Amino acid sequence: MIKNNIKTAWRSLLHNKSYATLNIVGLAVGVAACLLIFLIIKYETSFDMYHTKKDHIYRVVTLQGAPDGTEYVSGVPFPTSPGLRLDFPQLKQVASILRANGTLLSLNDDKTNATKKFKEDETYYTEPQFFDVFDFKWLAGDKKTALNDPNTIVLTQTEADKFFGDWKNAIGKTIKLENKTNLKVTGILSDPPVNTDFPLKVIISYASIKVKGSEYYSNINNWTSIYGQHYCFVVLPDNQSASQFNHELDGFVKKHIPPVSVKEGMHLQALSDIHYNAEIGKYTKGEFSHQLIDAIALIGIFLLVIACVNFINLATAQAVNRSKEVGIRKVLGSTRKQLILQFISETFIITLAAIIIGIAVAFVALPYFNTLLDIHLSTGFLMDPQVILFIVVLLIAVTFLAGFYPAMILSGFNPIAALKNKIAASSTSGVSLRRGLVVMQFGIAQVLIIGTLVIISQMDYFKNKSLGFAKDAIINVGLPSDSISLTRINTLRDELLQQPGVKDVSYSFASPSDNSSWGTDFTYDNATKPASFQANMKWADAEYFKLYNLQMVAGRPYIKTDTIHEIVVNETLLKKLGVLNPNAAIGKYIELGDKKSRIVGVVKDFNVSSLKKQIPPVIMASYKDVYQVINIKIQPADMKQTLSAVERTWNSTFPDYVYEYKFLDEKIADFYKSESQLSQLYKIFAGIAIFISCLGLYGLISFMAVQRIKEVGIRKTLGASVSSIVYLFSKEFTVLILVAFAISAPLGWYLMNKWLMTFTYRYTFGPGIFILSIAVSVIIAWLTVGYKALRAALANPVNSLRSE
Questions:
Q1: DSSP alpha helices (H): ranges in 465-566?
Q2: Which has the higher per-residue pLDDT, 802 or 569?
Q3: Whole-angstrom distance, CA of residue 110 vs CA of residue 121
Q4: Which residues in 547-594 belong to E strands, given as ranges?
Q5: How many whole angstroms separate alpha carbon 344 and alpha carbon 407?
Q6: What does pLDDT average to over the chain?
Q7: Distance of CA 792 to the CA centre of its chain
Q8: Are the C-beta atoms of residues 343 and 13 closer than 8 Å to each other?
């Protein structure tokens, strides 16, 4: 029975090749998009879910007072981990980890006797307990003892191969840190999986930072300073919840942190939340929130629904052509159940073919999506049981979703009326449904078009909005932080300024708009206690103002000096303090720790981070010891030669370090990488929705042209023009698209307005977006319908009326 149904279905599809092709292509594209979205969601939701204690692992984060409320900070003071172990012995494990960006590692090559230098961003200081909390595979060394002693280092397999040629030769070898400290290799890790927010490459023992002379030594027992890259993780016992422990953390904070420094306290963040909560911070880049996952999952469902809608529309439209077939089958004894199975079998074959093609399309598109989203989807996804289950469920769901209603319509024909050929398109009970489904198709497509246009406009807004400083043709170069290198910076500045393509040179802790920030408490105008909010500290030399074209609204920039002498503040800081007249602040004092300095200028507000955030209060001062960046403004002309000259000059000044640079505008563009990726995704999905919808329109107009061929012949014989015939075919679809727009426009406005509200600075969209959306939809529909309508209008009426 089943074999006969499939054989008959196959013959029927071969007889209706155009119908089968349109359905298979539409379904295949929808399936490919849905499968890719499933793979993306599966990848993004798998981060760090392979750790055996994942349900009990929490990160301790800091709550701080911010100008616009309370904010979470990922880092904690250095003594947090030993303090938690002492005060809460019931905790299974407690472990600290600190990321050190731009670490210089070097070693002597035994074969050439040359020095090999590497600048590593993924360098971490970890306590041994970190590997009791998290599951990382060890290839060599003992995880319980490898990181116990100071000046020991563990490498991943790839890093060890890079350093020593073969990781098996690495144990016991020596690597030099920042040209001054020898580290002994005591272990090798297998490379971490791609779906982790701990992209470990180089791991140095946490005990190393407790050695006198370490960069972090002065903060080991400091409860008031917080490093954003210093995380603390705990494993809660089975009988304690996060909310219970949060309550206990309140007492812990009051016990250890001085009252003057306590802003809000500490809080637990579940491991499962870290990957999606970019507001707090994580070690990996990229932002894939729960809301974004829900959004693209919904888009995947919509695209599949649109593809199924095509099937239903085409099947019900073709019902008239198959009415005699149904009538003959019923006269010969076929029951309605048998007919339903027959038509479901046809749907199954179409769906199976579409899924096979869709898998092939997804396989080909996978590398593009990996590059676009900076992810690592495996091309071996067909070996994954979850993916196989998804495909099977997809096959069954699409078969019944797309095939059940048409099967009910076709199997329900009256055999006598069918054999007399008295079943017309208008009597298949599908006309109203088809119209509704066309409205649904184009409604979804128009929502995606509106979303795409809004996101593109917001991205253009990011690119074109003034940030309050110059950002073009400026490069940032990392600066060695050791004391000997800092003595050479004035010489380096002079040599760089001698290069014809270099306009200005400045030193600072960070660029004006940067991911690196330095929050500080301060006291204004001899107040009895610090301000109720922190300020963003911008350490920079006096040339910084000229290089970045920062505008003063009162006073002047501070004078050239290597230490804190004078201070400049921004407008926002004064507003938060209630100082309305910038000139009134000139001459007042700011106290930072035990250092009191006079305000000599007020700088116009400039954006210190992405446009998603408000401009914070800013304090600017000079302090040579903390400079990490060389800011170099270059002439746009002969840029390649200038960059080469800058590199040569830098290398001659710091021969023991690695030269790296980045254009400031590229760094700023990285703030909006996730939005840029979202823009590309929306373009792709909107294009797919339009393509599938147009396939459906093309199929419907094709069947309509066949069914109304005699009507067209009569109209032409009576004098109807070609344009009136084309209008006859186009007007119904135009009306349906306008109805779809009336439904989709409010929905699109609501969704995109909600998305824009996540940005402090945002594009305001007006009617132009909606006019463009409906114009695009109508033009594409006319182009799709127009070809077939024009052919029908130009056909010779004699041929269509000859049989009469």
A1: 483-486, 489-497, 543-547
A2: 569
A3: 25
A4: 552-555, 566-570, 589-592
A5: 6
A6: 84
A7: 48
A8: no
- Return the amino acid letter for 223: W
Is residue 303 within a helix (H) or strand (E), and if so which, with residue range?
Answer: helix 290-317
Residues 446, 740 contacting (CB under 8 angstroms): yes
Could you tell me the CA-to-CA distances from 301 to 46, 307, 329, 387, 396 in Å, in that order? 21, 10, 36, 16, 15
Q: Give the DSSP H/E element, type plus range, for residue 156.
A: strand 152-156
Helix axes 709-717 and 722-756, enclosed angle (nearest 10): 130
Averaging pLDDT over each range in 104-113, 581-590, 749-758, which range is the top one?
581-590
Residue/partner pairs of 795-803 with CB below 8 Å, 24 or more apart: 795/709, 795/712, 795/713, 797/712, 797/713, 797/714, 797/716, 797/717, 798/713, 799/713, 800/709, 800/710, 800/712, 800/713, 801/710, 801/713, 801/714, 801/717
Which residues partner with 473 through β-bridges? none
- List Cβ neighbours of 271 (8 Å cut-off, separation of 6 or more): 48, 51, 54, 57, 58, 59, 233
pTM value surpassing 0.90: no
134 and 191 Cβ atoms separated by less than 8 Å: no
How far apart, in whole angstroms, are the C-alpha atoms of residue 529 and residue 472? Answer: 41
Give the tokens for residue 307. Answer: 């593809």
Q: What is the CA radius of gyration of the chain?
A: 34
CB 153 within 8 A of CB 184: yes
Tokens representing 42 are 């599966």
Q: Which helix (H) or strand (E) holds 654?
A: none
Inter-helix orientation angle 431-464/673-707, to 10°: 150
For residue 53, the model assigns a pLDDT of: 94
pLDDT tens figures, 452-471: 888 888 888 888 888 999 99
Overall average pLDDT of the 602-631 stretch: 92
Q: What percent of the chain has pLDDT over 70?
A: 84
Distances (CA, A) of 137 to 44, 130, 272, 395: 22, 13, 21, 38
Among all chains, which residue has been given the structure tokens 């009569």?
Answer: 714
Helix (H) / strand (E) element for 205: namely strand 202-205
Assigned token pair, 89: 């012995």
Give Dmax (Cα) for the chain. Answer: 104
Q: Please say whether the beta carbons of 501 and 634 come within 8 A.
A: yes
Nearby residues of 729 by Cβ (< 8 Å), 6 or more positions away: 701, 704, 705, 785, 788, 789, 792, 793
Return d(Cα 327, Cα 573) in angstroms, integer. Answer: 83
Measure Cα distances from 202 to 109, 152, 285, 487, 699 in Å.
19, 11, 18, 29, 59
* Separation CA 362–CA 375 (nearest Å): 15
User: Is residue 737 predicted with pLDDT exceeding 70?
Assistant: yes
84 φ/ψ angles, rounded to the nearest 5 degrees: -65, -40
In this predicted structure, what is the pLDDT of residue 180? 84
The span from the CA of 597 to the CA of 473, in Å, is 33
Q: Which amino acid is at 524?
A: Y
**Could you tell me which of 410, 425, 430 has the C-alpha nearest to residue 707?**
425
Please report the pLDDT score of residue 418 as a whole number: 45
AA identity, residue 150: P
Burial string for 693-718 (b: 16+ CB within 10 Å, else e) reads bbbbbbbbbbbbbebbbeebbebbee
Q: What are the tens digits of pLDDT across the range 302-351?
A: 888 888 887 777 766 655 555 556 566 656 556 666 666 777 777 788 88
**CA dist., res. 332 & res. 326, Å (int):** 10
CA 329 from chain centre, in angstroms, equals 55
Specify whether the CB–CB gap between 105 and 151 falls below 8 A: no
Residues in Cβ contact with 241 at an 8 Å cutoff, skipping those fewer than 6 apart? none
